[in-house]
């Protein structure tokens, strides 16, 4: 089962990242995506081990962005591919059979490619972007989501990502989206997790191939 609400971790330091993950777990988040950039493998491994210990304590699932070797080493629940340029089929061979693979897509073609590679879920991004000038991806909004999902007609869980906030969730769900991945709002106030879960009905989408272990 894949939760409908994901927290994409944030923090200006490893300590801040870990603290935010702890707060999100304590507030009831069911899945955390550890997403850090420009960390050495040694520094990321240390943070990932801390995050694994924390998420295990709260029975929260942990996904590692891009670094599939670290995801395997710490026995995370899976890996999420973001502009990595590595085929999910290759990553699948590197992981344990029970670990899952997610990926971020920005258009119909990418979604179709990932689905053909049998990823377990997809983040469809960007829903919105506060600063369009700095975005290299197309902003999809509600119309883009609806068009893509109607064409795909897939059972693969597809979650909205990119400047998601509580005020937009109901409308997003009406497009056929399975759930949402949130960063800023949960970082700023972990108590919003309860409000998100209420809207999302605290239910989970059915995963195609695996259950988390």
Q: What's the gyration radius in Å?
A: 16 Å
The biggest sheet, with number of strands, parallel, antiparallel or mixed sense and barrel status, is: 8 strands, parallel, barrel
What number of domains? 1
Level-1 CATH class name:
Alpha Beta
Intertermini distance? 10 Å
CATH topology: TIM Barrel
Rounded average pLDDT: 91
The number of helices is 9
Overall SS class: alpha/beta
Work out the helicity level.
Answer: 25-40%
Basic shape? globular
Could you please describe the fold and organization of this structure?
The chain has 213 residues and is of the alpha/beta class. The protein has one domain (2-202): TIM Barrel (Alpha-Beta Barrel). Helices cover 39% and strands 19% of the residues. The longest helix is centred in the N-terminal third of the chain and has 17 residues, at 41-57. Residues 202-213 have low confidence and may be disordered.
Write the layout of secondary structure elements.
Blueprint: E1 2-3, E2 5-8, H1 14-26, E3 31-34, H2 41-57, E4 61-65, H3 68-73, E5 78-81, H4 88-94, E6 100-105, H5 108-116, E7 121-125, H6 141-152, E8 158-161, H7 169-173, E9 179-182, H8 184-188, H9 192-200, E10 204-205
Parallel strand pairs: 2-3, 2-9, 3-4, 4-5, 5-6, 6-7, 7-8, 8-9
Antiparallel strand pairs: 1-10
């Amino acid at each position: 089962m894949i939760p409908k609400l994901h927290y994409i971790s944030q923090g200006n330091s490893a300590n801040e990242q870990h603290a935010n993950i702890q707060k999100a777990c304590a507030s009831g988040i069911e899945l955390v995506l550890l997403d850090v950039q420009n960390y050495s493998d040694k520094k990321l491994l240390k943070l990932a081990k801390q995050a694994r210990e924390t998420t295990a304590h709260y029975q929260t699932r942990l996904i590692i962005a891009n670094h599939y070797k670290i995801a395997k080493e710490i026995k995370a629940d899976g890996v999420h591919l973001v502009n990595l340029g590595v085929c999910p089929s290759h990553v699948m061979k590197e992981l344990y059979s029970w670990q899952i693979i997610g990926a971020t897509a920005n258009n119909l073609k990418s979604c179709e490619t990932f689905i053909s590679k049998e990823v377990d879920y997809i983040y469809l991004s960007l829903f919105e972007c506060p600063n369009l000038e700095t975005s290299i991806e197309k902003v999809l909004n509600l119309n883009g989501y609806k068009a893509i999902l109607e064409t795909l007609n897939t059972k693969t869980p597809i979650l909205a990502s990119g400047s998601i906030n509580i005020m937009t969730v109901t409308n997003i769900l009406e497009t056929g989206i399975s759930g949402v991945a949130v960063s800023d709002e949960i970082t700023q106030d972990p108590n919003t997790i309860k409000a998100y879960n209420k809207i999302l009905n605290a239910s989970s989408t059915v995963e195609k191939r695996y259950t988390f272990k």
